[in-house]
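TICKET: design request
STATUS: open
ATTACHED STRUCTURE:
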């Protein structure tokens, strides 16, 4: 619809809106002045919070790098022979001097894989820096020595049973964590009594020339200096800055309230959500409400909130280091700390706007005329081109942008003329190119179909092989035991493994979980089953030799395959009512008469299979007794980690509850009750991981009556 009453000349369209904008700007100058002041406050607050956050970031980097530097120095001394780890007298004195050289270092030590330990630190009140040792001369106990000013050991202050500290028996958490990491890392933040302080330990494994683990060295760093640094920052008259872990536990803060305190004689840490400082508490709660939880914050976040009508600005800075620490630096400042500097500028702004009004109107009119003239020339030339006259040329303008527009118009006119002349040839050329590309796509699709068919055939063969080697119903019928098993793969070929073997009166249960799915996982599962069957057939009963041989076999095959697959594996041997458990896997569930459930953690009983070439030092075992009517339930992580449509996991507790309620039934009925409950939880959600369940229930005397040598070895 062509309605000439709705059209305007460019000259009018430029001048009228320009005048209206200037008038409106002057009318709203008061509001804009306040907004400008508010923006200035926001910018100033952001600059201050950014500076404080950056300084805190740098302080944390510098402060927390010290323990790892000390570890590096000590490992270098060990590797170059300057420090003999066998000479505990010299090492103890060396650590004693190091602790005194670094004010905020609380303890320096190392533990060897054979259980020996040497360290020096300052955590016994009134004793200065002490030396601790576990060795043959301490009879394997942890002995704590007083030390004089020359570094000589004095009386023994205390002695602790070595089984609580020896890495080859019950390894401390810091030793296991460092050994598994295989690189420098941190322990969790901890508090130590009777000294009231927080600390974190930097740990690092060191190895022999053949690559075998020799021990773990560690440095404990007190965190009180971070609080002193934060309190020395000039945030604002009533601002706060605090550092917390991802679970909300405080590391340090700038307020007068401590981040930890003694409660009933023990050091207790405070959460940012519970500390007796309203501003820190309200800030932490606001952050949690905004992001659901602290774990979801991945980059710097700036936000604001109100407390009793007063605006507060917050900067959340995620802080991480290369060794595994993952904290949050939070800075909060009230708006009221800055408003006094802004209000004085508001009145002068209003006066300047009024003066500028008249000048802007005059300049606007002149500028509009200057701009419209060359545009009108371009418009006329465009109309001539639309009528078919492609021979157009626009004169140059003194305005740079309009001159460029004119040049572009002239270039476009020439290109249009050339395009019309060569368009047909270009269409033919592009059509030929598209036809060639289409032929290539068809060929690639045919090749993809062939590859998919081949891969499907390979996976089908491996899937059939997996099903063929699983225990059949007859193998599960063992006198004196009621056994039921279930396995469902998430994909065509799964990575779960289970087996039931009855050899010379010993019933062996194996259960494992290979990482991932697909062809490689299925092959590794087949190799694991074959290796377990072979070791059982040669009557190998020692759990260390059993799992070590199995691991070395699978490790070398995985290396040959150039694969990164591994598996968790638990081996249970049952005979005469006694069960031995070894290997690292999910928890083993023991069910007593009446449905009472016991959960056994297998983390310290082994190591992932095919991940390292030598895991003998990590393998251990435990033994339990089963009365008539009692039994064992084994499972893979596909059950507790099963998701429903709302991404909620099933968990171990619901499974234990179902087992307990149905324990009076048969093993088959117990198994089916668990699977039905898991299916009810999953609903219409896709199954993402393999599901495997094995139930064993002792019913009467059966295989226990046999007197084979292997059976007797377990009793």
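STATUS: resolved
RESOLUTION: sequence designed for all positions
ATTACHED SEQUENCE:
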């Amino acid at each position: 619809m062509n309605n000439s009453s709705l059209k305007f000349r460019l000259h009018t369209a430029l001048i009228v809106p320009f005048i209206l904008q200037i008038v409106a700007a002057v009318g709203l100058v008061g509001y804009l002045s306040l907004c400008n002041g508010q923006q200035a406050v926001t910018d100033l607050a952001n600059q201050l919070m950014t500076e404080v956050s950056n300084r805190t970031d740098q302080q944390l980097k510098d402060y927390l790098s010290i323990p790892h530097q000390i570890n590096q120095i000590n490992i270098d001394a060990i590797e170059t022979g300057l420090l003999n780890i066998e000479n505990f007298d010299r090492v103890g004195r060396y650590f004693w001097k190091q602790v005194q050289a670094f004010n905020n270092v609380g303890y320096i030590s190392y533990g060897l894989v054979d259980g020996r330990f040497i360290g020096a630190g300052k955590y016994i009140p009134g004793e200065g820096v002490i030396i601790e040792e576990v060795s043959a001369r301490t009879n394997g106990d942890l002995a704590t020595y007083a030390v004089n000013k020359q570094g000589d050991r004095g009386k023994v202050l205390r002695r602790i049973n070595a089984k609580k500290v020896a890495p080859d028996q019950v390894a401390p958490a810091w030793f296991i964590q460092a050994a598994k990491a295989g690189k420098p890392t941190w322990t969790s933040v901890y508090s130590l009594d009777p000294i009231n302080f927080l600390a974190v330990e930097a740990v690092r494994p060191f190895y022999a020339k053949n690559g075998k683990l020799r021990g773990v060295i560690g440095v404990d760093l007190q965190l009180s200096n971070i609080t002193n640094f934060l309190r020395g920052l000039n945030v604002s008259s009533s601002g706060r800055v605090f550092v917390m872990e991802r679970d909300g536990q405080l590391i340090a803060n700038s307020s007068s309230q401590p981040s930890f305190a003694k409660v009933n004689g023990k050091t207790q840490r405070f959460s940012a959500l519970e500390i007796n400082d309203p501003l820190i508490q309200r800030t932490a709660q606001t952050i949690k409400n905004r992001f659901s939880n602290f774990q979801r914050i991945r980059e710097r976040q700036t936000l604001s909130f109100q407390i009793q009508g007063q605006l507060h600005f917050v900067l959340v800075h995620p802080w991480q280091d290369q060794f595994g620490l993952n904290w949050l630096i939070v800075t909060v400042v009230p708006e009221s700390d800055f408003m006094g500097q802004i209000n004085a500028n508001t009145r002068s702004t209003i006066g300047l706007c009024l003066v500028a009004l008249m000048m802007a109107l005059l300049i606007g009119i002149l500028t509009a005329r200057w701009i419209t003239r060359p545009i009108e020339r371009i418009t006329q030339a465009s109309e001539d081109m639309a009528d078919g006259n492609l021979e157009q040329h626009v004169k140059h303008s003194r305005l740079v942008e309009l001159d460029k527009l004119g040049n572009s118009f002239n270039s476009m006119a020439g290109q249009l003329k050339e395009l019309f002349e060569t368009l047909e040839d270009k269409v033919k050329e592009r059509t030929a190119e598209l036809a060639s590309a289409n032929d290539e796509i068809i060929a690639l699709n045919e090749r993809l179909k062939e590859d998919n068919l081949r891969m499907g055939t390979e996976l089908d063969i491996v899937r059939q092989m997996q099903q063929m080697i699983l225990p059949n119903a007859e193998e599960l019928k063992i006198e004196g035991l009621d056994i039921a098993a279930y396995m469902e793969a998430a994909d065509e070929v799964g990575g779960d493994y289970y087996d039931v073997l009855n050899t010379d009166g010993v019933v062996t249960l194996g259960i494992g979980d290979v990482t991932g799915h697909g062809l490689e996982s299925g092959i590794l599962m087949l190799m694991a089953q074959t290796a377990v069957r072979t070791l059982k057939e040669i009557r190998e009963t020692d759990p260390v030799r059993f799992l070590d041989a199995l691991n070395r076999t699978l490790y070398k095959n995985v290396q040959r395959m150039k694969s990164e697959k591994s598996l968790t594996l638990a081996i249970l041997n049952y005979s005469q009512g006694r069960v031995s458990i070894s290997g690292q896997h999910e928890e083993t569930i023991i069910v007593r008469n009446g449905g009472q459930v016991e959960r056994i953690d297998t983390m310290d009983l082994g190591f992932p299979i095919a991940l390292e070439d030598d895991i003998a030092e990590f393998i251990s075992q435990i033994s339990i007794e089963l009365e008539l009517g009692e039994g064992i339930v084994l499972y893979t992580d596909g059950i507790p980690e099963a998701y429903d449509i709302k991404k909620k996991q099933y968990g171990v507790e619901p499974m234990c509850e179902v087992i307990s309620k149905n324990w009076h039934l048969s093993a088959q009925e117990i198994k089916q009750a668990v699977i039905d409950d898991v299916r009810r939880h999953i609903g219409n959600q896709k199954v993402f991981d393999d599901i495997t369940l094995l139930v064993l229930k002792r019913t009467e005397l059966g295989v226990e009556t046999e007197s084979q040598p292997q059976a007797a070895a377990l009793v």
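CLOSING REMARK: DSSP finds 14 helices and 26 strands in the chain. The first strand starts at residue 105 and ends at 112.
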